[in-house]
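Same chain as my last thread, 911 residues:
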Amino acid sequence: MTAGVPRRPVTASGDARWHALAIAELARSLETDPQRGLTSVDAARRLAQVGPNELRRGKPISPIAIFAQQFRSLVVWLLVGAGVVSGALGEWVDGLAILAIVVLNAAIGFFQEFRAERAVAALASLSAPRARVVRDGSSAPVPAREVVPGDVLVLDAGDLVAADARLAEASSLRANEAPLTGESLPVEKRTAELAPETPLADRVNQVFLGTSIAAGSGRALVVSTGMQTEVGQIARLLESASSGETPLQRKLDLVGRRLLWGCLAIVLVVFALGWLRGTDLFELFLGAVSLAVAAVPEGLPAVVTVALALGVERMVRRNALVRRLPSVETLGSTQVICTDKTGTLTVGAMTVRRLVTADAVFRVTGEGYAPVGEIGTAEGAALGEGREPPLALLRAAAGCNDAELTMREGKLAVAGDPTEIALLVVAAKAGLAREALEREEPRLRTLPFDSDRKRMSVVRRRGADTWAYVKGAPEGILERCTYVRTARGIEPLDAALRARLEQASAQLAAEALRVLALAERRLERADAEDVEQGLTFLGLAGLQDPPRAEAREAVARCRRAGIRTVMITGDHPATARAIGAELGILGPGDEVVVGAELEAMSDAELALRVARVAVYARVTAEHKLRIVRAWKTQGAVVAMTGDGVNDAPALREASIGIAMGITGTDVAKEASDMVITDDNFASIVAAVEEGRGIFDNVAKTLAYLLAGNVGELALVLVASLAGYPVPLLPIQLLWVNLVTDGLPALALATDPIDPGVLDRPPRSPTAQLADRAMLRGLLLTGSLTAAVSFGVFAFEMERMGDVVSARNAAFSTLVFAELLRAFGARSDTKLVHEIGLFSNLRLFAIVTASFGLQIWIHHSTLLSRLFRTQPISLGHCAVLVGLGCVPLLVLEARKWARRRRRALGRSGGVV
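reply #2:
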């Protein structure tokens, strides 16, 4: 045997076709012995040549990189520049205050994202640390990273598969391939070669890295390791996937650029006017820079970060862990959710949903492996109301079973094949415990399930008699049944009843249920050879991974919110169609597309058709990636959910990737922006609700901030045009920004989410954060604030001729107007008294405290010297507060008038 790297047979398309070779030919190609395996020397040499059996993992983001990411916004750099210039010009108080705000914002963002990265790392659980291989003629465990092509894997129930391998031996072997293909049921495996064109999901003579053995045993020749495996090929797709900037990042950068040019224009106008009047150039330059600093909303980055951070905290309480803060808002803009089926829309555990006997059809309630639920007839008669549960059928379900269902330390523990666990659970719902059955009817003999017989039989001692319990495919069991158990006793199974039972089986299958038949027989002796002949038919069990109880309402909420839900699964088309229809995802006019059909479409054809397809079945990782890209070419904001390795490229490509925390693989979590800790679709919808609420808070906070800055700019600009001195000093402008913009804005960012936030369509990703409606509101609000403040300033200048007294009055009037306006900024439609002053206690407390501080700086010796203010009397203060109410009252009247016009328009009145 040579020790080189084995030859790799490929098709014309470049895909490995190990599944198409006979075992002998495969062994020659791999240069290995199927019985004795490789020698230790050969294995070591191959390991040196092909490298360790590991996937290339993304380099973890360092704390320094996370901190640096907080400075990507144009607004942040605009603030840094303003702070540096202020300090260079001697206004070190202004400069330090601005830079402190920038650093605080970065620290908050760093803390949230660093903590999320550590939490995701703690969720990592999928690994195959060791594998059992045959080397030098005997089997022994080795580290999984040392497995090489040509090794012989020894597989048993519960093992994680350490590499891609071709089966050489298989005894009742079934594998759970959901992480790779999305198939919810364990796949029966066999050794015979397959056609070269067989798709991945149907390669039943192979096992794959990252999957697990559900039942049985076998041996397999390793054909690929590390990045050459199917999982490795999927990992390569991640390199070409990119989600790009989030909508919020793009919109904030656009606002930042507009602020920059707007500020420059106004500063140049003020500078030019002063220069024409002969004002000292240094004072002009200092005033212009101060004006620019006042125009920039210093609190905006901090407010956005705090709003996102608070949203993250709320999402954690609703089972959503956000890894990147801007992704919170992206959820709120989501227009399409492409969701996996198994474990997300469904429970992720096989459950018996129907039982059929010769006399009745029973519906089974409850979901998952918890033995909680009821067994009632299809007509609605519950147990104890004249209809007994089919105990003989359920006894056979528990008796012909190798699974385990136990309580350990107060927690439910299951082991074995998911179908057999489901049968134990339904028996437990009727009070039949497996442990009691084992005591009362000890097992004597087992005829294990195999893919040829499609049956399993267990012989047990029942009292003085010997009985066999049999389960398997309905067609195979029915043809071996001579009798049937009815409510009247044991009766011959005639042709008419046989046909009716066959029809019942077909009906269950049409409902996308997996159907098993159960039968029994009394034996003369335990070693009888004809155990599976002359059986008495007991009934049928219809099993399914059922939809989550809350999933249907979650899908309906998405529909009301204008969000399209698309189900993408590797499961069978019939199952996907049934679940899609039951949950309301598949509606009239919607299409179901199978992977083979998708394969035949070009990207352009898929883009044209994607909006009509609600369900995709039997798809691969590349298909999922294409679906996400097709939606994005239509301009949609796409959320993609998934748990398997095959979902990772699409998770990376989507506008927001959402991985499952319980069943999700490491690769899926690393590719995601958010992790759902309970694997529940309803938690995704809750996260969307939070995202929309956060965007609303950011938008109204931005409007509040910018309106204040517009008012300050307008005040200074109008005073300059009118020939008056600058109405506010730089230190006063900084105080205005701090006390009226920063703290109230942070309180606005914490406003409770509107309960009707999901009753409107998602915001268009192309819509601007500062749209025309917002700009009109900014101009009106800023003009009102500037008009009141300038009126006070001009009145005092004309009355007293003292610029210090005029600034004193204008300063407090502007602060009072901005603080009071914060209450009206909470809603564009609801009046202040409808929202309630105390529904946001933070805002009420901040406004109250800020009023007190503003009055204090007029009377404190130290503060009045710093801010160059004068004391004001109680009566003078009341007048200024009253004038400060004017902008709020005008804006509230505008809300009422607009609402009145809309009401008249809806009722057909005169507008």
